[in-house]
Amino acid sequence: MAGYEEDLAYTHDAGFGAIAEAGAAELVALLRRRGRTSGLVVELGSGSGISSRVLVDAGYDVVGLDSSPAMVELARERVPEATFRVGSFVDARLPRCMAVTAFGEVLNYVFDERSSERELRALFRRVHAALEPGGLFVCDLVGPGRRSVRSWAQGEDWVVVVEAEEDRRHRLLTRRIVNFREVDGAYRRSEEVHRQLLYPAATVAGLLRRAGFRVRVRRSYGSLRLRPELRAFIASRAAGRARG
Question: Could you report the per-residue pLDDT of 114-138, keeping only the tens digit for each?
Answer without folding.
Answer: 999 999 999 999 999 999 999 999 9
